[in-house]
Amino acid sequence: QKVVVKIVDLTRQPLDVTGQELLTKDRVTLRINVSAEYRVIDPVKAVTEVKDFADALYRALQYAFRKTLGAMTLDQILEKQVMVDADAATKVRSDMAAIGLEVTDITLKDVILPGDMRELLNQVVSAQKAAEANVIKRREETNATRSLLNTAKVMADNPVMLRLKELEALESIATKVDKLTVTNGTTGLLNDLVSLSGD
To answer: Burial code of 89-120, b = ≥16 C-beta within 10 A, e = fewer?
Structure first.
C-alpha cells in the first residue's frame, strides 16, 4: 500500500474571496471582497471528505453572498452594513462542519462599483448636497429678512434709534471717503443728519 502523510494546520486561518462579481436585485453588477475565519477541527474529515477543504469553503462563501446580495438593491447595500444572510451563513457553517471545519467570522469587506455607476452616484450625491445647501441658504435669507422687519418695526416706534442708525451709517461711509464736499452748507448738513430730535 502507498501511504501518504499530510500535515494539516489546526490554527485559525483567514480566507479571502476577492473580486467576486454578482448582480444585485436591480441588476447592477458589483465586485465584492469577502473575508472569513476558519479552523480545522477534524483533520481526517478535512482531507478525506473533499479534495481541498479551503476551496470548498471558498465556494460556499461565494454562494452565500450571491444569495444575500442578489436579493438586495444597490441602495439597500450602500445604506447599511450588509451582513451575510443568516440562513446562508448557517448553511455555510453546517456544510463546513460536515467536512471538519469550524467557520467563525464571515464579513463583507468591500463593495466595488463599476466606473460609470460611481460617476452617476457622485452626480446624485452632488445634486443632493447642492439642494441641501440651497435650502439652508433660503432659510438663512428668510431669517435675515425677518430680522430686518423686526428692526424696522422697532425703528418706526423709536425715532431716536433711527437717527442713531443713520449716524452709524454716516460714520461707516465717512471712514471710506477721502474728501467730503458739502453742498447745502454746514448748518443744513448738521440739521439734516446730526439732529437727534426735531419738529
So the answer is: beebbebbeebbbebeebebeeeebeeeeeee
**C-alpha cell belonging to residue 28:** 447592477
Q: What is the pLDDT of residues 129-152, one digit of tens each?
A: 777 878 888 888 888 888 888 877
DSSP run (H or E) holding 53: helix 53-69
**To which residue does cell 440651497 refer?**
134
**What count of other Cβ atoms lies within 10 Å of the Cβ of residue 12?**
12
Distances (CA, A) of 134 to 127, 129, 137, 139, 170: 10, 9, 5, 9, 34
Grid cell 454578482 is found at: 22
The pLDDT assigned to 191 comes to 61
- 126's grid cell: 452632488
pLDDT at 39: 93
- For the domain made up of 13-113, the CATH class stated in words is alpha beta
- In the chain, domain spans: 13-113, 119-193
Interval 161-171 mean pLDDT: 77
Q: Which residue has the cell 430680522?
A: 147
For the entire predicted model, the pTM comes to 0.54
Residues 6+ apart with CB under 8 A from 61: 15, 17, 34, 36, 92, 106
**Phi, psi values for residue 183, rounded to 5°:** -100, -20
Percent of residues, the chain, with pLDDT higher than 70? 80
Cβ partners under 8 Å of residue 98, min gap 6: 45, 49
Residue 57 near residue 100, CB atoms below 8 Å: no
